[in-house]
Specification:
alpha+beta, three-stranded antiparallel sheet, single chain, 14 helices, about 400 residues
């Protein structure tokens, strides 16, 4: 790869070395005309921990130097959960970082790049969460699996342009699907039912736009993933596999679940048209029933998700991917383990005359499902949470265990 140098006389001590995995030039003709170069690549996440953020308009918001430590925002928690639950997908789920440098010298043979005055200008929050993540693993004596992150590198000696890039890269936000759904009022009833649930803490509400980042906002996308996983077979209108609802996508396809919810809401709220086909009327009827299920169990669904994410029944199971505190209490069960369990709980869904839909889980279910989940995780999923979360076979096995705990399958 052609090297980009400003002057051979520069002091070698002022360059910062980085070892990368991949690196390619993506410069445009305009970049070349203006004396700059742009690269894109991937790098091990732990290689970026000590990079400076001097040029960034935003410092790490949790622990800025000289300031009192702040609470983590929704953004920080999402990054943290991705590292814990889906590290293998981190490179595609995280937007990565943007770097600037005044000069760069590339050695493709050694896979290293020497950077003059490098700085992260977008991604300081990701860097901060990564730093805390690796520090926690080190304290617990855990050697992490390799995690890569994507990066863009802009090489220019134009200080004014560096400032403009930093501002632009931090404040150009895409409109997210949840904002579109929220703006159309599709989350109002769901939020109302969620807040009305007795166990919902005061002040907790659903996130309706991408700027809802405070501690008291619940992740709407995850809520709908959970609701989809908990949907009983009698209300399931999507694909089946071997006679069972095919729910494996609920673990990882948050956008699909949200779009399905949007379609269900739209059809459920639509008015019948004269001479419409009989199958359309039937589809509307099914959509109304499914939407009512979402409303009825919204609060309980989130309560079940939170319970299983920190279920102390996993103490003593020896599963290494489960996080524990110093006292051995469970602090995080990967979503890949949690979602097949939640899906199995759909067999306990009952529509009661006055209360509507409820998930009535037998007292003996938790211990049996945890032991079954352990065996499924180790044997069918090869101790990989992602494999378990995406495997229909794992969902089917836990569904079979849950179905055996009641005289009849409620769905």
């Amino acid at each position: 790869m052609t090297e980009h140098r400003k002057s051979a006389a520069k002091s070698r001590a002022s360059y910062v070395p980085l070892t990368y995995h991949t690196l390619k030039t993506i410069s445009t003709p305009e970049d070349a005309e203006n004396g700059r170069k742009v690269y894109a690549g991937s790098i091990l996440a732990d290689r970026i921990l000590d990079l400076p953020t001097d040029e960034n308009v935003r410092e790490y918001l949790v622990e800025a130097e000289g300031k009192k430590r702040r609470a983590k925002t929704q953004v920080h928690r999402v990054i943290e959960r991705t590292l814990k639950d889906r590290p293998h997908d981190f490179a595609v789920l995280n937007s990565g970082i943007v770097l600037v440098a005044r000069d760069a010298e590339v050695d493709d043979t050694k896979k290293t790049i020497q950077l003059l005055r490098p700085s992260i200008i977008n991604g300081a929050q990701t860097q901060g969460v990564l730093r805390e993540f690796y520090e926690q693993l080190k304290m617990n004596g855990i050697t992490p699996d390799p995690i890569h992150i994507k990066f863009e590198l802009i090489v220019t000696d134009d200080d004014a342009l560096v400032g403009e890039i930093s501002i632009a890269r931090n404040f150009q936000n895409d409109v997210m699907t949840v904002s579109i759904v929220g703006r159309r009022g599709m989350l109002e009833e769901l939020d109302k039912h969620f807040q009305a649930y007795a166990a919902t803490p005061d002040g907790m509400r659903l996130r309706k736009k991408e700027t809802d980042l405070a501690e008291d906002f619940v992740r709407t996308e995850r809520m709908i993933q959970v609701l989809t996983a908990l949907t009983p077979q009698s209300l399931w209108t999507r694909s089946f596999e071997n006679g069972l609802p095919s729910k494996a996508y609920t673990y990882s396809a948050s956008s699909k679940c949200l779009k399905d919810f949007q379609a269900t809401y739209t059809l459920a709220k639509s008015d019948p048209k004269p001479d419409e086909p009989e199958h359309t009327s039937e589809q509307r009827k099914n959509a109304k029933a499914l939407y009512q299920f979402y409303l009825d169990v919204a609060g309980q669904a989130w309560e079940l998700y939170e319970k299983w994410k920190t279920h102390n029944g996993f103490k003593g199971t020896g599963l290494r991917k489960i996080d524990r505190d110093d006292d051995g209490n469970v602090t995080n069960v990967p979503d890949g383990i949690v979602f097949p369990i939640l899906a199995s709980l759909s067999v306990f869904a009952q529509k009661q005359p006055r209360k509507g839909w409820r998930i009535e889980v037998p007292p003996s279910a938790d211990d049996l499902l945890i032991q079954a989940a352990k065996q499924v995780y180790m044997n069918a999923a090869s101790s990989n949470p992602s494999t378990m979360g995406k495997s229909h076979a794992c969902y089917a096995l836990l569904n079979m265990i849950a179905s055996s705990l009641t005289p009849r399958v409620w769905n």
